[in-house]
Specification:
Elements (H helix, E strand, L loop, with lengths): L8 H10 L6 E5 L12 E2 L9 E2 L3 E4 L13 E9 L13 E5 L11 E4 L3 E4 L2 E4 L9 E2 L10 E3 L7 H9 L4 E5 L3 E7 L3 E2 L11 E2 L2 H10 L4 E7 L3 H14 L2 E5 L9 H9 L1 E5 L3 E2 L5 E5 L2 E6 L3 H19 L8 E6 L3 E2 L5 E8 L3 E4 L9 H5 L2 E5 L5 E2 L4 E6 L6
Parallel strand pairs: 5-6, 13-16, 13-17, 14-15, 17-21, 19-24, 22-25
Antiparallel strand pairs: 1-12, 2-11, 3-10, 4-6, 4-7, 5-9, 8-9, 18-20, 20-21, 22-28, 23-27, 24-25, 24-26, 26-28
């Protein structure tokens, strides 16, 4: 039987960091690249824009020709051509001439400015202007955004919609990204049943962990499949061995109490290596992790809130960094609205509701009370070297929204 001793959160995190694995690289269509992580630098194949272009609908002309024009002193021009979007003109603009131009169209030879249509009137080919523009005004110059050959994005960049536009402008229709980790979530426990409106048999409980942990895996940019195993040694062993063949990460829930024998940890101890089991933290003290066939195994509590907290504190970072994306808690400061006791030597992750100034911990904090996570939007973190906070103390807060992929 594997015997546990409590590790600190810091030491457990270091053990995971020392055993951090990374996914392979794949090339995908840019259509599928949103919320992926670049596995290559992006260098522009083109200038963007590829030519001097009009920044608005109007008339391309020589800026100096407009000087002095006003409502009381209009000037006359001759329209010599029209350029629509996606078109160009081979005519050269001379003094006193103008070309009708659409937004995004190439500036014709000879012209150096665009006068907005609102400051003009037309009569056939005759144009009257009532305002002036300076050379370069309302013109987006060639390569204003990016230059051919320029590195525009670094490897390990998370691709948001903004980056998608830049990648496309640089000329890429396919990009290299880190593969999404494949996670096998193994739910253990003979007492678990599926959600139902019917009366539940005595000593049974609805299996909520499979839904929350799967969603948290997907919120970390990974893929998740679910398996179930009874509480027997042989079932758990076979489930973990099978998962280690085809998945990058294994997670289990249930059977992680550190005060008695734990079939999950006993299995890992036999077929692999245990990194830690039992962490001086609340909630989630029974958190564990190990290695089987070179695959990381996270062992979470069967208690729903403890399992969610264990995931946030240990597994989320691991999944992010497997894909080349750095992850650290984004700590913000808030004023505590209540006294929060703690004890030295333990790190507390207190469920709280935080606004832009204050944080108030959720009073009903049992590790099986899922509603407390719904009522919260953040964790107040109490370091192992602190004995809690008084009302109106400044506290460290991590907002749930900052944890998402």
């Amino acid at each position: 039987m594997f015997l546990s001793k409590l590790d600190s959160v810091k030491n457990a995190s270091k053990l995971l960091n020392d055993n951090q694995k990374f996914t392979a690289i794949e090339e995908i269509s840019i259509y599928d690249a949103h919320k992926r992580v670049l596995a290559e630098d992006i260098r522009a194949f083109h200038d963007s824009p590829p030519f001097d272009k009009s920044a608005m609908d109007g008339f391309a002309l020589i800026g100096e020709d407009t000087f002095g024009a006003s409502q009381s002193a209009p000037k006359e021009f001759k329209i010599i051509d029209t350029i629509g979007a996606g078109d160009f003109s081979d005519k050269t603009v001379k003094n006193g001439e103008a070309i009708v131009i659409a937004t995004g169209a190439p500036i014709p030879n000879g012209a150096d400015a665009v006068l907005m249509k609102e400051y003009t009137t037309e009569d056939g080919d005759d144009l009257t202007i009532y305002s002036q523009v300076t050379p370069g005004e309302n013109v987006s110059p060639k390569s204003e955004d990016i230059e051919k050959g320029q590195k525009v994005l670094d490897k390990n960049t998370f691709i948001r919609y903004q980056e998608l536009g830049l990648i496309a402008s640089a000329g890429y229709d396919r990009v290299k990204v880190f593969k999404k980790p494949k996670v096998k979530l193994i739910i253990t426990g003979n007492e678990l049943v599926e959600p139902t409106k019917d009366e539940i048999d005595k000593a049974k409980i609805i299996n909520s962990n499979q839904f929350t942990i799967k969603a948290m895996v997907e919120d970390s940019g990974a893929l998740c499949d679910i398996a179930h195993a009874g509480d027997t040694y042989s079932e758990v062993k076979q489930a973990i061995l099978d998962a280690s063949k085809d998945y990058d990460v294994i997670m289990t829930t249930g059977g992680t109490a550190i005060s008695k024998g734990d079939v999950v940890l006993d299995v890992i101890d036999e077929i692999g290596e245990i990194l830690f089991h039992g962490v001086a933290m609340r909630p989630g003290k029974p958190a564990g992790a190990g290695i089987v066939n070179d695959k990381i195994v996270f062992t979470f509590s069967g208690q729903p809130v403890a399992a969610m907290s264990q995931f946030d504190i240990f597994a989320r970072k691991y999944l992010f960094e497997m894909q080349g994306r750095e992850f650290n808690f984004n700590i913000v400061n808030r004023v505590s609205q209540l006294k929060i006791p703690s004890q030295l030597g333990r790190t507390d992750f207190i469920r709280a509701f935080s606004d832009n100034e204050y944080a108030k911990h959720v009073l009903n904090r049992g590790s099986g009370i899922i509603r407390s996570m719904v009522e919260a939007n953040s964790y107040i973190i109490i370091d192992e070297n602190d004995e809690g906070y008084q009302k109106d103390d400044i506290v460290d807060v991590v907002l749930f929204d900052s944890l998402l992929w």
